[in-house]
Design brief:
- The structure holds 2 protein chains of 2 kinds.
- Chain A is α/β, with parallel strands linked by helices.
- Chain A has a single domain (5-265), classed as P-loop containing nucleotide triphosphate hydrolases (Rossmann fold, 3-Layer(aba) Sandwich), CATH 3.40.50.
- Helix content of chain A is 25%, strand content 22%.
- Chain A is built from 7 helices and 10 strands.
- In chain A, the strands form 2 sheets. A 6-stranded mixed beta sheet of chain A has the order 6-7-8-3-9-10, sandwiched between helices. A 4-stranded antiparallel beta sheet of chain A has the order 2-1-4-5, covered by helices on one side.
- In chain A, a hairpin with a 2-residue loop joins strand 4 (67-72) and strand 5.
- In chain B, helix 2 packs across helix 11, helix 2 (10-35) runs antiparallel to helix 12 and helix 10 (172-191) packs across helix 11 (199-210).
- Chain B is of the alpha+beta class.
- Helix content of chain B is 67%, strand content 8%.
- Classes of the chains: A alpha/beta, B alpha+beta.
- The A-B interface holds A 57, 60-62, 81, 83-84, 86, 88, 90, 96-102, 104-106, 108-110, 112-113, 115, 117-118, 143-145, 148-153, 158, 161, 165, 178-180, 183 and B 31, 34-37, 39, 150-151, 153-154, 156-157, 159-161, 163-170, 207, 211, 214-220, 277, 281-286.
- Chain B: Belongs to the ABC-3 integral membrane protein family.
Chain lengths: 274, 339
């Protein structure tokens, strides 16, 4: 089980102990323990509103813990400054900036963790940007405006931005939402190459689709708590065990597994496109 | 006096230098303001700065420096209210703007200075700029330009995607407040040129002009600086030329009108470019069903049919009356699906 705090080795990318998170006063995560080991590919799954996105945002420090302790690579969050080891792919937002930006520029901001102030891009930076674009298959689009891209292409650009920093730990928030199958397959190919290179990957997904073969371990969230943590589940398992059952209050006793096939049918994988 | 002679007069030369630098610096800051979708922030700071100017007039100190202090304070408050993202935030900001303008006029009254003195700051008075004012303007403009260009990778990342920037370890809050402070400084240096009530135009309109044409942030930033320079100097020359005919045109409004004219000149080109790009843009992921066309197609699309060919996945579409035709060989022979 969870190790004593003082002995968390520096090569454990993520360790969250008894994490509680409240957003505008409303508790969203309750007593979540999560350890991600080096080289693991962990899928965070669960229904909309189950807290999986909140959890991944918490792991990168965007949501403060109200209680509990988070360590990244063996350092507590407040003492962690080695952000170049972490790559974060936020949920794709349709809101871009009010000014045009090219694919190259967006991906180049992924090198900021390696750049000093007031210095131009070095050739190593350029090589990393080009390599990241090639991994996601967007090399030919470097000088397009991001506003011209389709949803799946935009998602791949955001992944390239995270890859450009050459992270050891990559956290992706719903990278497959609203992305068509060919783009999901391209994404799966890119993640497989990273995994083969030894990267640790934490991925939030509603449905795994083509990513399923990559997953080493599944964590299913329900109502802000960890409902399952173990070997990979198929999408069908997640539904069948009732993990995907919309909004069920645990304390009513109605949310037990098996009672919710109708409820899960009523939840039509609403992709967060808005 | 010819136009050339007019520009050999010292006050006109000072005006030209000020217009030149402010024309570059204000749009540089404006690019970040527009990127953050805060195009009206400059207006707000301009209103608040009126109080700063009035305090300077009242206390008989330099209105420029009191305006700097009050504008920075106002800009930081605006940024904090924005960051909190409260629903009542815009009402709070509106009250701040009204308070700034009303306070300025009120304090000017207390000072007993006539409204004409305040008007110099409200609508600009580039022709009365003193050597001292010019030096301050030059120094601040250079600082603004250096920061906006030098820190552009950081400022771009923070404005484009604050969450990502935070995970990249950037001090997002510091950079956000820095942009607000830069906006306040550009309001103050531009107040002698275009005036506090029109200052936002010089920050925003050049950006609006060039982003019709550009696809990258860098080109937008540099282009806006060029467009701002052209509008600023062009407007000053226009006002000077008109003043020779006996009219009394202030440079501030003419600079803004020249910038707006530039926008309307470029807009049709931008509309044409957007149309072209829309035709080669990828399809939305959830593409609507393809509708086969029933009517007989008068010709076969091919290399020589004159319709624009667009690659689409494994086949080529032809643009025909604003939509795409994809050749499709079915049991009944070749026909075209409309996309």
């Amino acid at each position: 089980m969870s190790k004593p705090r003082s002995t968390v080795p520096a090569d454990v990318p993520v360790q969250l102990l008894h994490g509680d998170v409240a957003l505008s006063g409303r508790p969203v995560l309750r007593e979540v323990d999560l350890t991600v080991n080096r080289g693991e590919f962990v899928a965070l799954m669960g229904a909309n509103g189950s807290g999986k996105s909140t959890l991944v945002r918490t792991l990168v420090g965007l949501n403060p813990l109200s209680t509990g302790r988070l360590e990244l690579f063996g350092r507590s969050l407040s003492g962690f400054h080695d952000w170049s080891r972490i790559g974060y792919v936020p949920q794709r937002s349709t809101a871009t900036g009010g000014v045009p930006a090219s694919v190259w520029e967006v991906v180049a901001s992924g090198r900021l963790t390696h750049r000093k102030l007031l210095r131009p891009l070095r050739s190593a930076d350029r090589a990393a940007i080009r390599a990241a674009l090639d991994v996601v298959g967007m090399g030919a689009y470097a000088h397009r405006g991001v506003a011209q891209l389709s949803g799946g292409q935009h998602q791949r650009v955001l992944i390239a931005r995270a890859l450009a920093g050459r992270p050891e730990l990559l956290l992706l928030d719903e990278p497959t939402a609203g992305v068509d199958l060919p783009n999901q397959q391209a994404l799966a190919g890119a993640l497989r190459r990273l995994k083969d290179d030894g990267a640790t990957i934490v991925l939030v997904a509603h449905e795994l689709g083509p990513l399923a073969p990559l997953v080493d371990r599944a964590v299913v969230m329900r109502d802000g708590r960890k409902a399952y943590d173990g070997p990979p589940l198929t999408d069908a398992d997640v539904h069948a065990q009732g993990f995907d059952a919309g909004h069920v209050h645990c304390d009513t006793g109605l949310g037990t597994a098996g009672s919710t096939s109708a409820a899960s049918a009523a939840v039509p994988t609403p992709l967060k496109e808005l | 006096m010819t136009l050339f002679e007019l520009f050999s007069v010292p006050f006109m030369q000072r005006a030209l230098i000020a217009a030149f630098l402010v024309g570059i610096a204000a749009p540089a800051v404006g690019t970040y303001i527009v990127q953050r979708r805060l195009a009206l922030m400059g207006d707000g700071i301009g209103h608040v700065a009126v109080t700063g100017v009035a305090i300077g007039l009242w206390t008989q100190t330099s209105p420029t420096w009191t305006a700097v202090i009050v504008a920075i304070a106002g800009a930081v408050v605006i940024e904090i209210v924005r960051e909190r993202g409260h629903a009542e935030g815009d009402v709070a900001l509106a009250m701040l703007f009204y308070g700034g303008l009303a306070g300025g006029v009120f304090v000017t009254g207390l000072a007993g200075t006539g409204a004409s003195r305040l008007q110099e700051f409200l609508f600009g008075s580039i022709l009365t700029i003193s050597v001292n004012d010019l030096l301050v303007t030059m120094a601040l403009s250079v600082v603004l330009i250096v920061i906006c260009v030098g820190l552009s990778p950081q400022l771009f990342a923070v404005s484009q995607d604050p969450d990502y920037a935070k995970v990249a370890g950037l001090p997002v809050r510091f950079y956000s407040i820095l942009v607000a402070v830069l906006a306040a400084l550009s309001v103050v240096i531009a107040m002698r040129t275009v005036g506090l009530l029109l200052v936002s135009a010089l920050m925003v309109v050049p950006v609006a002009i060039v982003q019709q044409l550009t696809r990258s942030f860098r080109m937008t930033l540099l282009g806006a600086m060029g467009a701002g320079l052209a509008a600023s100097v062009g407007g000053l020359v226009l006002a000077a030329a008109l003043s020779r005919t006996g009219a009394n045109v202030q440079p501030g409004p003419s600079i803004v009108l020249v910038a707006l004219a530039g926008f309307f000149l470029v807009w049709p080109i931008g509309a044409w470019l957007r149309r072209r790009r829309a035709l080669v843009a990828p399809f939305p992921e959830t593409s609507p069903e393809e509708k086969p066309v029933d009517e007989a197609h008068p010709h076969h699309h091919g290399e020589k049919c004159g319709h624009v060919a667009v690659e689409h996945g494994d086949h080529v579409d032809y643009i025909h009356d604003g939509h795409r035709h994809a050749a499709h060989v079915g049991a009944e022979g070749e026909h075209y699906d409309e996309h």
